[in-house]
Amino acid sequence: MSIEDARDAFAGAEEVEITVTGRRTGRQISHPVWFVQEEQSMFLVPITGSDSDWYKNVRQTPLIEVAVNGTAVSAPATPITDADRVDHVVEMFRAKYGRQYVDEHYPRRDVAVQVSLG
Hints:
single chain; alpha+beta; seven-stranded antiparallel β-sheet; 4 helices; globular
C-alpha cells in the first residue's frame, strides 16, 4: 500500500488506533485517539498532555503504528513541545472536532506529536 493510499484511508476517519511500545514493559500498547492531517503528516494531541503515558512511551521509543479500517502504517513519531506549533495543532483539532469538544476533552495542551506519512 502506498503512503497516498494510507493518507486517503485516514482522511475519512474520526479517530485512529495508535500502537506504541511501553517504556517499562516493552509491550505493544494500543489506544484510540483523535488526529488531524496536514500535508504529509498526521498530528496527535495527548489528552493529558505531557503527563500522558502514551506520549511518554513515544518519547522513549519514537516509533508508532497508526491504524484505521485495516490500514496500518508504522512511522517515526516526533514530539512537539514548541508552544506555537502545539497551538497550531490544537487549532486544527478545534477546526475538525469543534472548539468546545477539544477544550473540554483536552485540559492540558502543552505537547503534540507529529507522525510523518511521507
